[in-house]
Design brief:
Blueprint: H1 2-7, E1 30-34, E2 37-42, H2 45-56, E3 63-67, E4 108-110, E5 128-133, E6 135-139, E7 156-160, E8 190-194, E9 196-198, E10 203-204, E11 209-215, E12 236-240, E13 251-257, E14 262-263, E15 281-287, E16 291-292, E17 306-307, E18 310-311, E19 321-322, E20 329-330, E21 333-341, E22 351-353, E23 367-371, H3 376-388, E24 402-404
Antiparallel strand pairs: 1-2, 1-3, 4-24, 5-11, 6-7, 7-8, 8-23, 9-10, 9-22, 11-21, 12-23, 13-14, 13-15, 15-21, 16-17, 16-20, 18-19
Length: 410
Amino acid sequence: MKRLLLALLPLAAQAQTPPVYNVEGVPGKYILYSNNLLVSRYNTQPECSTAATKLKQTTSKTVICQNTVTYIRTPKPVEPPPDMHVGLPVSDPSTWPVPQPGVDGEWLAQTGYIPPSRVTWGWEEGGDFRLICNWSKMGYDDPIVYPGAPGKAHHHTFFSNTAIDAFTTSANIRSKGNATCRGGTINKSGYWIPSLIDTATNKPLAPKDLLIYYKTGNWPYFNNNPPIAPLPPGLKMIAGDPTRTTAGGIGTWLCLIPSTGSDRPGTKGSSIPTNCQPGDELWATVQFPQCWDGKNLDSPDHKSHLAYHIQFWTGDPQRQYRCPDTHPVVLPAITFLPKWNVPASADTSKWRLSSDVYSGPAGYSLHGDWINGWDPAITELWGQKCMTEKRDCGSANLGDGRVTQEFQGN
């Protein structure tokens, strides 16, 4: 009986090693949910089903078992079109800016404050968790598109893991490098974007920082009431199109006036604004898909294992969305928001992305890449507390009273 009661406790209340769930036979692959709240993990479907049957005898809430991952397919790299990663010319590496070194350790503090849950405020309420990262390195690697092929990609700017390179994989990302995001090594993910180049000098520009949103997204408006799942360890994502040469992509740009916190009029759009003023901040936004196939950490095109939500009419005018049947697992919605300071001598009409290898307005090729290197116990914690329980955890709180601490100016 004691063992059963322990199994039914929320994971945050149990002392256990962080779960790993990516192949058959690895502990914790099956998740037991009660009313969309994660209850426990099990190694096999029969164990999960037995626990679900017992739990249904004690509650009127919806109880389900979900298989988080069935298998991983390690795809062969798909050779992109010849012009995909030619990239703009970039100055000699000796002229590149120097990043902060990051830290080798966790940077957390206990405040005791837990943001209030919005579950009782109304079905339409959401939750969020935000993180700020320094940039960690620059270079020509891309461990998703060109794994094992150093120097083959266009120029990238990386955030979080300081040792990410062409040989970084889902399996080794947490075993290498320092961390440059608030909270330290609880998150050793790799986040990267095409570098922003000042074409007057061909020098890459150092970002101010990267703000990463993890939010419930449109999940509250889904009409089939799915649970929101924790981020699978090692998941790879790409959003945006590095070959795009026209407006209408998933990325947006604007100039922000820091003193007022408002956009500079006429600067928001699909291309890099040419009229940012000295003292402004140039902001970009990249939104990632929220629906996962529940099986693959990657796919041959590095995109098809994920999908954006779709409209699905059931008669309720307020809840018109869901994940497609091919991608039924709902994940936290991820948004990149990199920022650059605009100095007094800058001319943003000469700023282009390294992937902008076309003529015309700059910035259409904006895209972002990500390999999950979070500590699984931490993502499961804020996934439960901030997403499922719909708390505004802000840019620091993990949902249990601990906060991520800043360092080296991030």
